[in-house]
Specification:
The complex is a heterodimer of chains A (about 350) and B (about 130).
Chain A (H helix, E strand, L loop, with lengths): L2 H9 L3 H4 L19 E5 L6 E3 L2 E2 L1 H15 L8 E3 L9 H11 L6 E3 L3 H4 L5 H7 L4 E5 L2 E5 L7 H6 L4 H9 L13 H12 L7 E5 L17 H8 L5 E5 L7 E4 L2 E5 L40 E6 L6 E6 L5 E6 L4 E4 L16
Parallel strand pairs in A: 1-4, 4-5, 7-8, 8-9, 9-11
Antiparallel strand pairs in A: 1-12, 2-3, 6-7, 10-11, 12-13, 13-14, 14-15
Helix pairs in contact in A: 9-10
Chain B lengths: L1 H16 L5 H22 L11 H4 L13 E3 L4 E3 L1 H10 L12 H13 L11
Antiparallel strand pairs in B: 1-2
The chains are: A alpha/beta (about 350), B mainly alpha (about 130).
Chain lengths: ~350, ~130
């Protein structure tokens, strides 16, 4: 392990796990230093306008802290991803205030569209601030793809509601039965197929989406309607990593060659869908849940991530405010992401029990 | 004697009225409950309990992670056994930055009616953490 990396782990209180880091967390013999890189991932800040220049302080603090801590990283990450839902109701004051906080980052910023950013003006102002809603880029041998996965049926978007504000409000309620399932849609899937046609099957791929590109629980839109079609497009590649926000909780899963990892919110945590007594749904069985949140500690169960993909697989270090940090890393022996400390049933702790 | 018997029977049948109810009564009472639970859902998803636009449902979709079946329980942050309405008021004061409700405020009743409805079928486990 390189000494700078060790100093970061020590500083963030994760030194205890350093002794059990899997092979994928350590620079591979023969890999050049130039190919060794990390990026940071901040998501779901839900900046919420009250009136005038007032915003919900609690959510502001989550994003301010993530930006400040990301700026302290050593070694420096190559870039920062923002995973969507910068705003709560997609307004200019919210997006401007969020951008003002993100602008303090010392790194190049990429962003993913969230439904809370989109459904007021269909992403118009967000695009002025952040650029295209879907695109790809190559970085040190890894092919990165950004998708706007929170689109939905045209009839819902264009014909259902009498105002843009009403449309935004209906989509903003996670458990609102008037909402509509997320999807990437035909246009982007056609673009994705063409983009992937240019990529060698052995090139590691990282896909960023706001919603999970797997079907977990439709009632809360932990769901993408055309997830199966997208998985089919990604299936021929050796190493695919899908990293998503939206769920405000730790999730991970493996489907074929595709590893799925969620990231935490900076704003607030969500319950696991399996705890809704009327839903009967489940989280991926591989997932060791985050700790149940202490409501009296407003930053508990929120945080941000440092992600390492230099083996072609994504290892996520979760910086969890006022809580034990977690590392979910790809285990090449078992071929799936696993928590480096808690994966074995005997290693679970009481706060990980959700009901 | 016959008069006395008649009076006694009348007394018995009058006493019986208080315990008699029909299926129509049950349906009406259930309807009343559903109405209040609906009011609770409306409050749960609106900003009107607070001052900053935040709603209960933002953190608790379908009232999940409220665990009404575990109350009253020892609330470590308060250092004593507390009923769920105290926790609801804690959330109204803090994340919602609002004014707490009286324990018997009809809105507090509605909130609890809604939480319990979403949790129906789960066994009571008072004290559970």
């Amino acid at each position: 392990m390189n000494p700078n990396r060790r100093s970061f782990l020590t500083r963030t209180g994760a030194a205890a796990i350093a002794g059990v880091l899997p092979v994928s967390m350590i620079r591979l013999a023969g890999a050049s230093a130039a190919d060794d890189f990390t990026f940071a991932y901040i998501s779901d800040s839900h900046i919420q306008h009250i009136r005038g220049n007032e915003f919900v302080r609690n959510w502001d603090r989550g994003l301010i802290r993530a930006v400040a801590e990301t700026n302290l990283l050593e070694p420096k990450p190559d870039f920062v991803m923002f995973g969507g839902d910068l705003a709560q109701l997609g307004t200019r004051p919210e997006l401007d205030h969020g951008m003002e906080m993100l602008a303090k980052l010392n790194y190049k910023l990429h962003a993913v569209m969230g439904e809370h950013d989109y459904y007021l003006d269909l992403g118009e102002y967000w695009s002025e601030l952040f650029g295209p809603q879907y695109y790809s880029f190559d970085h040190k041998g890894v092919h990165f793809i950004v998708l706007n996965s929170i689109l939905t049926y045209d009839d819902w978007t264009f014909n259902r509601w009498d105002s843009a504000a009403r449309r935004m409000n209906e989509m903003a309620g996670l458990d609102n039965p008037n909402g509509s399932p997320f999807m990437v849609g035909d246009k982007q899937r056609t673009w994705l197929a063409a983009d992937l046609a240019k990529v060698d099957k052995s090139t590691p791929i990282v896909v960023f989406s706001h919603s999970p590109l797997q079907k977990i629980y439709k009632g809360w839109n932990f769901w993408t309607e055309d997830a199966d079609e997208i998985q089919t497009l990604l299936a021929p590649f050796d190493k695919v990593n899908v990293i998503y926000g939206h769920v405000h909780q730790i999730q991970y899963n493996q489907i074929g060659n595709i590893a799925f990892n969620s990231v935490m919110a900076t704003a607030w945590p969500w319950p696991y869908p399996s705890t809704y007594a009327q839903s009967g749904s489940h989280v991926p069985v591989l997932t060791v849940p985050m700790n149940r949140a202490d409501p009296f500690n407003e930053r508990d169960a929120t945080g941000w991530q440092l992600i390492n993909v230099h083996t072609g697989r994504a290892d996520l270090e979760y910086t969890l405010y006022d809580n034990t940090n977690r590392t979910v890393a790809f285990n090449s022996a078992t071929g799936r992401p696993e928590d480096v400390s808690f994966q074995r049933p005997g290693n679970r702790v009481a706060p990980q029990a959700h009901y | 004697m016959r008069l006395l018997t008649t009076l006694m029977l009348a007394a018995v049948s009058t006493a019986g009225v208080a315990d008699e109810f029909t299926n129509a009564d049950v349906a009406r009472w259930m309807e009343q409950y559903e109405l209040v639970a609906q009011q609770g859902r409306a409050l749960w998803t609106s900003a009107e309990l607070g001052t900053n636009g935040v709603a209960c449902a933002q953190c608790h979709p379908n009232a999940a992670n409220t665990h009404p079946e575990t109350y009253p329980k020892f609330q470590k942050q308060l250092g004593r056994v507390a009923p769920i309405w105290e926790m609801i008021n804690w959330c109204i004061r803090n994340p919602l930055q609002g004014q707490e409700l009286a324990a018997d405020d009809p809105r507090m009743t509605a909130l609890q009616a809604y939480i319990m409805k979403e949790r129906r079928g789960v066994a009571l486990e008072p004290g559970k953490h």
